[in-house]
Amino acid sequence: MKTVADIIGQFENPTEADKHLITKAYDFAVRAHEGFTRYSGEPYMAHVASVGFMIAEMGLGPRTVAAGLLHDTIEDTPVKAKDIKENFGEEILFLVEGVTKLSSVRYYGTDRHNESLRKLFVATSQDIRVLVVKLNDRLHNMMTLRFVPKEKQLRIARETLEIYVPVAHRLGMGKIRKELEDLAFPYVYPAEYKRVCGLLEKRAGKSSEILEKERKILQKKLVDSKLIDFNTSYRVKGLFSLYHKLKLKNWDIDDVYDLLAMRVVVSTVEDCYRTLGIVHELWRPLPGRMKDYIAFPKPNGYQSIHTTVTTTHGIILEIQIRTRKMHHESEFGVASHLTYKQPSTTDNPTVGSRFSNLIPSLFRPFTKQSVSETNILIAKGIPDKEKIPQWISQIGLLSAKGKSSNDEFINDLRQDFFSSRIFVFTPIGDVVDLPVGATPIDFAYTIHSEIGNHISGVKVNKKQVQLDTELHNGDLVEVETRKSAKPTKKWIDIAKTSIAKRHIRAELGLPSPK
Ligand code: MN
């Protein structure tokens, strides 16, 4: 089990106050979870200690780490909100309650409304730190999923792929996304997983030695070209993302050009372009494969130069070139703005991976090495205290009117629904999004016109209500129908959505307005 010392050891320059806070949260969690065990038979504390550790490892501040240690107290133990507030203050209570609330956003096994569910998930979190805690909570749950009863595994793994992975992706958190999807993959698509493993083994079985050789050649060339301040690493493509690629390529693994990738991380953008020139001088580039995501970042903010080359040994290799800052952001996304840890400037030997133990032994050799890419993230920086950029802390605030941000996703969130949409649940847990001010009539017609046309009564949060009741975020809405029930003219004024108004007019035989 991770100890307090393990967690504090992840901090660069912890103050006495930081150490005190983490120790206090750890001891509090030990007492709260005493006597509870996980499905694995481990003490429950092992779970929250791991979550706290992983958050510290990502470089977040002591309050977020404390929230990670305390994240299951309110939900799973007799601890009350006021106990957390008295002992740790409002901010940590806010984070713990945020994580607790997120447990109610659940995937119920239908693919409808997944996009709404993802948005609801982000909106409910209210603060990016809540999402970071929740994503790490899920990561540890996925690492220990094999101990969970069989009938629960599939739902949890699918929820991970449908909700957590896209959220991590949209927030640019590439590292946690890759880990989550590779952990969920074998549960959700067992046959495909085996097939991908088989193809990869055949094709990339001996690739780690070859990659190591090629890496040495590239390193020497970069040094000869007077480029000094750089790190190189390589990775084998994640199994789940390889699966998606293979589906597009008729399962021909020879058509997957980024199966093996070498990464060069340098200090400046200028050095990125210099490196590109050096690489193309060394190895022959494949035509049309160069992508400049530095000049044209991906929608989630990802920046890098990609090019595909054939090495002198005939190996097809994708080369990814980026600055340290870009690398840090591609691993941690929006959370990178919250981290204390700064990318280091020198090569660092391998960091152990929490992931490598879980991979079938057949992949261990190169998975382990592919993880060496994380070595660039060892911290050397000066703590920046828990300063949260305003636009990040405002994620999820319904009245977000902060400064305009270039981030497409955040803007999308604000315009699309913070100001104008609400999310309500059906009795079976589907999420339906509606405009602000929508009523049960709008809800019913959004589900199906036949339900709208025969409403006989409505319950919101298990209570009978009038048809003109305004719905609110998170309401559970149940519509009762009766064959003989019919809409009235008044409903046209009550309804807010054009789809409901149109159906009501049609049912009443009224002409549609021009
Ligand atoms: Mn948990």
UniProtKB/TrEMBL annotation:
InterPro entries: Beta-grasp_dom_sf, HD/PDEase_dom, NT_sf, RelA_SpoT, TGS, TGS-like, TGS_RelA/SpoT. One of its GO terms (molecular function) is RNA binding. GO terms for biological process: guanosine tetraphosphate metabolic process. Keywords: RNA-binding. Pfam families: HD_4, RelA_SpoT, TGS. Residues 420-481 form the TGS domain. One of its GO terms (cellular component) is plasma membrane. Belongs to the RelA/SpoT family. This is TGS domain-containing protein. It comes from Candidatus Kaiserbacteria bacterium RIFOXYD1_FULL_42_15.
